[in-house]
Amino acid sequence: MRIDVFSLFPELFSGFLGESILKRALDRQLLDVRLHNPRQWTENKHGRVDDRPYGGGPGMVLSPQPIVDAVQAIRSEMEQPGPILLLSPTGRTWNQRWAEELATEPHLMMLCGRYEGFDQRILDILQPIEVSIGDYVINGGEVAAMVLIETVMRLLPGALGDEQSALQDSFSSENRILEFPQYTRPREFRGLTVPEVLLSGDHPKIDAWRRQESETRTRQRRRELLDE
Ligand code: ADE
């Protein structure tokens, strides 16, 4: 999968892409993430990419020219450019099901905003799909884009060491309930012991216990998942 990310702060992604599971997926070429700074496309002689909002109000608005030109330049290089996702708190809320759909796309584009938002003509021209990662506001789309990249990359075949581990995750299409509690050594820590059943070696019994724990947790914390 190829992902083109447009951000005024591409450096924010370097630590994120340079470690752990993501680094391995990039090294193994399961994923190709390309960062673009729209500032490189600006025609403003002072290198500006934003301006004050018409009608007044606080903050700055991202100007249409650098973003539209940047996105169209990259799209024109591609035979079959994929969907454009624009990260914004006004978008539809991201979830695992949506990630599963997008994980089948060979190409995605992600637009990260800063300041007060995007000039509406960017949306009118590029017709992006607006995505929110939740009902709260962060400083810009970069962290939200990282959330999308990480959710989707986990679903790419071969990205995780153990193929099964993405299927077991809470919210996967195989498993729309919360994950059961996990334990590792030691058997006792500060007086708290590992449930006996997990030491029994009786796998049908262990599976039944885990299913029960998942259901109890889901009922207590996220009832609406069971109703779905
Ligand atoms: N930018 C600012 N807040 C956001 C959110 N909740 N989701 C996506 N992008 C954002």
Protein described:
It is a single chain. The protein is of the alpha/beta class. It folds into two domains: 2-153, SPOUT methyltransferase, trefoil knot domain (Alpha/beta knot); 177-227, tRNA(m1g37)methyltransferase, domain 2 (Trp Operon Repressor, Chain A). Helix content is 36%, strand content 18%. The chain has helices at residues 12-17, 20-27, 64-76, 96-102, 120-126, 141-153, 164-168, 203-221, 223-227, and strands spanning 2-6, 32-36, 50-51, 61-62, 84-93, 107-112, 117-118, 129-132, 188-189, 192-193. The strands form three sheets. The chain has a five-stranded parallel sheet with strand order 2-1-6-5-8. A three-stranded mixed sheet has the order 3-4-7. The protein has a two-stranded antiparallel ribbon with strand order 9-10. The protein is elongated, with a radius of gyration of 22 Å. The structure holds adenine (ADE). Adenine binds next to β5 and α6. Adenine (ADE) binds next to β5 and α6.
